[in-house]
């Protein structure tokens, strides 16, 4: 769209381009208003249909609760989407570093397996590390469980 505007400015047709864009913007605004009206009448028809079988008060309370749930969902979505760009960049950097580390680990696997075949005692290192980590998680879980009580 920007390139079209620049090319129209060079050829002298920018005013025609802006007039067309203004017309399109007006048409889109009218379409948006009509779509909102359609949505309103569809919700009103749904309300009347449910109110005939469940009662007016129960239907009104149901619609209010539904709107509240949607409102809370939109608020949570906006809160997540409004994270600062630095935090998003940091998350992206962390994912990139994790993928690079996993690629490096996978590419070094043949070398690791070759050294494990030569020296079987090296197998004790990851087993000991996994056991220590598991013990740490158990102790941490016991501590957290005693704090909650």
Protein model, in words:
The chain is mainly α. The protein has a domain of 30 residues. It is 91% helix and 0% strand. The protein has six helices and no strands. Helix 2 packs across helix 3. The longest helix is centred in the N-terminal third of the chain and has 41 residues. The model has no long low-confidence stretch (mean pLDDT 84).
Fraction in beta strands? under 5%
Radius of gyration: 31 Å
Shape: flat
The secondary-structure class comes to mainly alpha
Q: If you average the pLDDT, what whole number results?
A: 84
Helix content: over 70%
Poorly predicted tracts of residues: none
Biggest beta sheet attributes: none
| E-strand count | 0
Would you summarize the structure shown here?
This protein has 149 residues and is an all-alpha fold. It contains six helices and no strands. It has a domain at 120-149.
Secondary-structure map with pairings?
Blueprint: H1 2-11, H2 14-54, H3 56-81, H4 85-107, H5 109-118, H6 124-148
Please give a handful of descriptors for the protein shown.
149 residues; mainly alpha; flat
């Amino acid at each position: 769209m920007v390139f079209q505007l620049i090319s129209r400015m060079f050829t002298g047709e920018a005013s025609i381009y802006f007039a067309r864009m203004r017309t399109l913007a007006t048409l889109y605004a009218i379409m948006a208003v009509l779509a909102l009206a359609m949505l309103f009448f569809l919700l009103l028809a749904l309300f009347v249909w449910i109110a005939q079988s469940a009662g007016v008060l129960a239907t009104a309370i149901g619609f209010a609760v539904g709107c509240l749930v949607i409102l809370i969902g939109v608020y949570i979505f906006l809160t997540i989407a409004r994270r600062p760009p630095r935090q998003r960049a940091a998350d992206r950097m962390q994912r990139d570093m994790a993928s690079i580390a996993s690629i490096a680990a996978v590419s070094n696997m043949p070398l690791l397996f070759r050294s494990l075949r030569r020296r079987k005692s090296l197998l004790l290192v990851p087993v000991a590390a996994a056991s220590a980590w598991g013990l740490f998680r158990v102790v941490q879980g016991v501590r957290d469980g005693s704090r909650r009580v």
